Amino acid sequence: MPAAEPRQLDLFGLADTPARLPTTGHGPQPERPAAYEPFPADGRRRTPAAPPPAPPPSLPPGARWQTLDLDGWILGYTLRRARRKTIGLHIRDTGLAIQAPAWATRAQIEEAIRHKTAWIRSKLADRDRRLEQLALQASQWRHGGRIPYLGVAIELRLDGAQAARYEGDPAAPADGDRLFLPLPEGADAGRIQERAQAWLQTRARADFDARLRRCLAQAGQTIAGWGLSSAQGRWGSCTSSRRIRLNWRLIHFAPSLIDYVIAHEVAHLKEMNHGPGFWREVERLCPYFRAARDTLRRQPPDTLPLI
User: Fold this and answer.
1) Which residues pair with 165 in a beta bridge?
2) CA dist., res. 243 & res. 265, Å (int)
3) What is the pLDDT of residues 242-290, one digit of tens each?
4) Range 19-28 contact pairs with CB under 8 angstroms and sequence separation of 24 or more
5) Cβ(67)–Cβ(56) under 8 Å?
6) 300: which DSSP letter?
7) What is the location of CATH 3.30.2010.10 in the chain?
8) How far apart (Å, rounded) are the C-alpha atoms in residues 135 and 141?
9) Below-70 pLDDT ranges, the chain
10) Is 28 helix (H, G, I), strand (E, B) or coil?
11) Kind and range of the H or E element at 9?
């Protein structure tokens, strides 16, 4: 019978004024549309309607472009009828795509959208971040590209030397420091990414080791060992066998965030849970942990530009 896996805890614009209507001088005059009043007589400011979103350059076969006003947020989406039993909502690179059965009315489709508004907003925000990251990656991996390192942006330079070389202090980097990689200027993005990440992982191993030793001494704890991880969904972990894993991508962040993750895992050596005692120990080791925790919660590992 195989041995049981050790228990592991994870860290987780204004509207146009209508033109005047022509008059004939005879008979009743047509009613004039009211002009937009930024500050009307009742004292309540009117917010001009936002322009509707533009449809994508091309639509899938059989799809139509629709818009829906969700309390001032104009949502655009593609609607395609399909042989299915339910209304399906999907987030594509072009935005919200809906597939609906032939029997579903427009009102039913819009009700489904309203019911899932929070989910749609969240997923569209995720889409925007991912597309921004893809655009960033396209510009990162080149001569003169910039990457995040210990909370600052450093510049990649290709000089064809025999080994990577950092211009500055890698333990206390400054914005604009340069990392020279042993590659010709015409190297492709894949090779540049590979060399840069190898250097970052080497630095992560050295930097995290020193921080972990200090935290262990402060906590009065020992460990069986530690290593780097490339986990897509967590920053660190600690097992009941006293082994710690730290995500190498933490090397992109300011030292205070790295120290928080390390304190989190070291605290698990005393409290293998997330109860009040555990958080007291985290605060003892890292008094500013709440701000660091909130920052990392807004930046999960799988949204980093360097994957």
Assistant:
1) 180
2) 9
3) 999 999 999 999 999 999 999 999 999 999 999 999 999 999 999 999 9
4) none
5) no
6) -
7) 141-303
8) 11
9) 1-50, 134-139, 300-307
10) coil
11) strand 8-10
**Looking at residue 182, what DSSP letter applies?**
S
Give me the pLDDT at residue 130, please. 77
Beta strands 88-92 and 73-81 are unpaired
Backbone angles phi, psi at 70, to 5 degrees: -110, 80
Contact (CB, 8 A) for 190 and 168: no
Tokens of 173: 């980097």
**What are residue 239's phi and psi, to 5 degrees?**
-100, 165
Q: Which class in CATH covers the domain with range 141-303?
A: alpha beta
Nearest to 266 by CA among 207, 221, 297, 302: 221
How far apart are the C-alpha atoms of 223 and 185, rounded to whole Å? 44
Residue 233 CA to residue 207 CA, distance in Å, equals 22
> In terms of DSSP H, where are the helices of the chain?
106-115, 117-140, 189-219, 255-268, 276-285, 289-297
The residue type found at 131 is L
The predicted structure's pLDDT at residue 49: 55
**Chain position carrying tokens 């593609």:** 78
Strands 64-70 and 73-81: antiparallel
Are 179 and 156 a contacting pair, CB within 8 Å? yes
Instruction: Check: CB of residue 261 under 8 Å from CB of residue 300.
Output: no
Q: What are phi and psi of 149, to 5 degrees?
A: -150, 115
